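seq as requested:
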Amino acid sequence: MTGHPRLYRRGATYYHRAAIPKDIKDTYPKTEETFSLDTKDRAEAVRLVRVEAVKVDRKFEEHRRSLVGRNRPPLKELPENQIKEVGEVYYAYLLEEDEETRFEGFFEPDGPLPPTPVKTFEEFVEDNEAFDGGNRYANARGKIDPFYLGSGLIN
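struct tokens:
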């Protein structure tokens, strides 16, 4: 069975060992990527070192990409298309959050559970509209609930 250039053995245990590529050597936080493969079986070590070599190569590539971003001057202003994209992503997030709240029910996660069955959103809207209509009707006739008088909401 052939070996692998990054495979080496210390005692009876096999290790992955990779030199840092020259183009990132000055900025990479380590002098080499070395770690145990936790096996003493050569066939298993060859299989594992191939998998780990791909992961380490991805780390090197990630480091290269981060260097490209660091060397660019900061933007003074976002382009219109990026602003629009950020807005769309945020709007989608808000819709997902709202939908999640509707499915889970209207209660505080840290608070007490609401009585069951939990009202649907539509039932909350109906109750709110009825409550609001009743208050508007009473308020138009100068009949204000004492609760609101003491709350500071109404002068």
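The chain has a mean pLDDT of 85.
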